[in-house]
Specification:
The chain has 462 residues and is α+β, with helices and mostly antiparallel strands. It folds into four domains: 166 residues, endopeptidase domain like (from Nostoc punctiforme) (endopeptidase fold (from Nostoc punctiforme)); 147 residues, Orthogonal Bundle (Lysozyme), CATH 1.10.530; 70 residues, Membrane-bound Lytic Murein Transglycosylase D, Chain A (Roll), CATH 3.10.350; 49 residues, LysM domain (Membrane-bound Lytic Murein Transglycosylase D, Chain A), CATH 3.10.350.10. 34% of the residues lie in helices and 16% in strands. It has 16 helices and 15 strands. The protein has a six-stranded antiparallel β-sheet with strand order 4-9-5-6-7-8. Strands 1-3-2 form a three-stranded mixed β-sheet. The protein has a two-stranded antiparallel sheet with strand order 10-11. Helix 7 crosses helix 10, helix 8 crosses helix 12 and helix 11 packs antiparallel against helix 12. The N terminus is likely disordered.
Length: 462
Amino acid sequence: MPRKEVKSMSYTASGLVDYVKKALKMNTVYMWGGIMRLVTESYISGRANQYPSWYTPARVAKFRALIGKDYYGVDCVGLIKSYYWGGVGSKNYKAETDKSANGMFQAATEKGPINTLPEIPGVCVWLDGHIGVYIGNGLVIESTNNTRFGDGVCQTKLSDRNWTHWLKCPYIEYEDQAPSDGPKATVGTEEQKVFINKIGPMAMADMKATGILASLTIAQAILESGWGKSKLATEANNLFGIKGTYNGQGYTCKTQEWDGSKFITVEATFRKYPSWAESLADHSDLFNRLDRYKKLRGLTDYKLACRYVYEAGYATDPGYTDKLINLIEKYSLTAWDIKHENSSGTGPSEQKPSETVYIVQKGDTLSKIAAAYGTTYQVLAEYNGIANPNIIHVGQKIKIPSGNTGGPQAKTYKTYTVKKGDSLWAIAQKELGNGSRWPEIQKLNGLSGTTIYAGQVLKIPV
């Protein structure tokens, strides 16, 4: 079968991402029917004979002016086909895998609406007649002659176009982006499982970084966004119904509010995000920033979390708590909650011979204790299974790792210099082995969003 033949050559999703990123740095021009070959007279003539109505005299003259200047001609689907046909300049051709953008979408066996896009770099995004490659963190690389974006291979934001669907290219292999031993949704429709499997790893990584219970985050995303299908989620990437503006961007629409006796329809402005990733990060930041949500910080009991989030005024619906609990239990969302050996926060059950144990005194903070032992609060929080380093209790036992009995402060991070085309997801995938750990990098560097720039030096957890 054609698919098996291509797979045997190890054309992979990660390889496709690397390939289009390299193409992004090359001199390219959009040519209908182009497959990343050097612009020459014979190449232009061949394409013009194949698509005479598109190759107008003006376009032909434009392409001829590029001969000898190391330009490569490529169209949107040609960028993808050129990868699994052997790369830039390859003259390999396989009729059975020669598909148009729409033909590739029809041939795909794994695909879905764009609002269920999995966070897997290398999946393709599609709209009628056009296709691009999703590289993660809300970014797409595509070949286009749209004057808004440029001419040839360019990088755009997922939100820049009205993509309607995602698909896995049927001619390449997709590596599992989630840890092999990580949780996966087993309950619900296929679309519901796709949604949970996309949000779950992000919520899990966010819990590790911020202490906000992952099951609560996933349940709220489901309830507030209608499984990612609400207008607010599809047009503003707002999964949690948070009002206001985000970096100056807002989205105004009608919503239902409880007035104490009945639901009424009101018009409100909600935050508009570049992607779901920013929406999730802003959600946990809200809980850690506003004092009324302090009971949620480091909490491990999902029923209490669902109660506290309602009592703190997050929603007006009197049935909000029960709805969240039902979602968590029906879809087994606690599978994404990080389980700590010492989830009660009362101290370690046993002490290793090489450890020092410190008893928390009145006025202590984890940072103060860490400084006294020549380490950092991040090290102590991780070593003791403390989800929220801001919460410790008088009398609590804090284990001090071997070797930290005083002296210089331990360094708990390395540095990474951002390169062109990098994203937080891609850096986490490369440096930490899991793209879903990007919130750890975001938090360690005090970033409020996901915007980074080439040359920026980031701290990476070790």
